[in-house]
Amino acid sequence: MSTHVAATLATPRARLALAEVRTPAPGADEIVVRVRAVAVNPVDWVI
Q: Average pLDDT for residues 6-20, to the nearest whole number?
């Protein structure tokens, strides 16, 4: 199975850490979407 790098959150309010994770296999009625860019809103850390 292929892998990709993802920003993961181990516990609430922890810092994001990069980790290599398995790319999920889609189910019969699902698709996998490639994400090229994301953003994290700083206010989300407070909520």
A: 88
